[in-house]
Amino acid sequence: MADLSIDVNGIRFPNPFVLASGPPGTNGTVIKRSFGLGWGGIICKTMSLDSSKVINVVPRYGRVKSREHGEVIGFQNIELISDMDFDTWLVELADCKAAYPDRPLFASIMEEYRKEAWQEITERCQATGIDGFELNFSCPHGLPERKMGAAMGQAPEIVEEVTGWVKEVSKVPVWAKMTPNITDPAIPAAAAVRGGADGISAINTILSISGINLDTLRPMPTVEGYSEPGGYSCQAVRPIALRHVMHIGRSCPGVAVSGMGGVECAEDAVQFILLGARTVQVCTGAMLHGYEIIEQLCEGLSAFMDDKGFKTVDEFCGKSLQYFTTHADLVARQAAARTAKKEAGRASHDTMWKGDIAKETEELTGK
Ligand SMILES: Cc1cc2nc3c(=O)[nH]c(=O)nc-3n(C[C@H](O)[C@H](O)[C@H](O)COP(=O)(O)O)c2cc1C
To answer: Is residue 1 part of a domain?
Structure first.
């Protein structure tokens, strides 16, 4: 039987599956219920010192469905961080730790660009006994208007400075959660590491518009006739998330990466681990299918490990990173392989397209 547990920054996770910051960890009741069901760790919904500034709207979610079966493949939200009073959060975090002392519970925190505010929220949260922090440098909507969230995450010098403020007072590990709404994810990730981050979480949601209602001509989710671009998550973002995790893993060796984006089953999660993620977070998957998916996640991971002969998660964490290379190297490898097989000519040439484009596309697609 495979051992699903993993040590990250000196914290033992019974399995690598962590509920991501968002609706799944909005209060103590659901956090305790999730630990009871077997989640390996939980990052609570992002909190700030003054929740009175957080005002949500309804509806705030939008869905993109597959054409054939109507399955939800993309999910948009314009939800803000937690609107629960900070003092209530402190009581609930302490209560969760008392109920589940050996389960990793991280506080996701976000503040305005003020050292005193970041250090106050850090010190007051850690007094509850939580195991770590995730710094939200990545909420893509609403809060950037207050220069918070992704507005910070897109400025590497601010990421470094704010991470440093938190590290000055934090006694527990600190992960920085990255925005995907940038060109090169390695730049802010490296800045967070310079600031002292022990881990990097990626990705938060991708700025998006889930659709336009063709009856009303209004964008969705429609709030009193209007909308705003929101954050995209769920299956559709997984390939982008995998790319970010790969780049961050390669550019920040030795830093604990927590990967997420579109994980709904063990096969999705294993791919993040193969790219170096030591934990895998799940948000939309739990929202769509329920907290109970933890059972299938653990069973599926265990079956994969037994099938491949891996006894621990460490044995395959990052194993696929070595297979990324440059385009020039791919060309050289393919030329060498063709020479070895004594094949003449070039493998692919634009003059080979004759007009049956769907069939020709299929022929060029990896199996
Ligand atoms: C409705 C909703 C609310 C979210 N709220 C937060 C939040 O408060 N803080 C945060 O760091 N990420 C938040 N996220 C982002 C998720 O934690 C996660 O980074 C993202 O959704 C990608 O993972 P997924 O495809 O498993 O959902 C939220 C996501 C959703 C869908």
So the answer is: no
Same domain, 282 and 335: no
Residue 236 to residue 71: CA distance in whole angstroms: 11
Which of 104, 107, 99 has its CA nearest to residue 21?
A: 107
Please indicate whether residue 45, judged by its CB atom, sits closer than 6 Å to ligand 1. yes
> Is 271 within the bounds of a domain?
yes
Give tens-digit pLDDT for 272-287: 999 999 999 999 999 9
CA of 126 to the centre of ligand 1 (A): 22
Specify the DSSP class assigned to residue 3: B
Report d(CA 323, CA 251) in Å as an integer.
Answer: 15
Residues 150 and 202 in one domain: yes
Question: What are the tokens at 98?
Answer: 């008392």
Chain segment 202-255, per-residue pLDDT in tens = 999 999 999 999 999 999 999 999 999 999 999 999 999 999 999 999 999 999
CA nearest 288: which of 72, 139, 82? 72
Domain count, the chain: 2
CA atoms lying within 13 Å on the CB side of residue 116: 0
In a shared domain, residues 21 and 72? yes
DSSP tag of 134: E
234 belongs to the catalytic site:
no
- Model pTM score: 0.96
Phi, psi of 170 (to 5 degrees): -80, 140
**CB-CB contact of 16 with 2 (8 Å):** no
> What's the domain range around 336?
327-363
* Residue 282 near ligand 1, beta carbon < 6 Å: yes
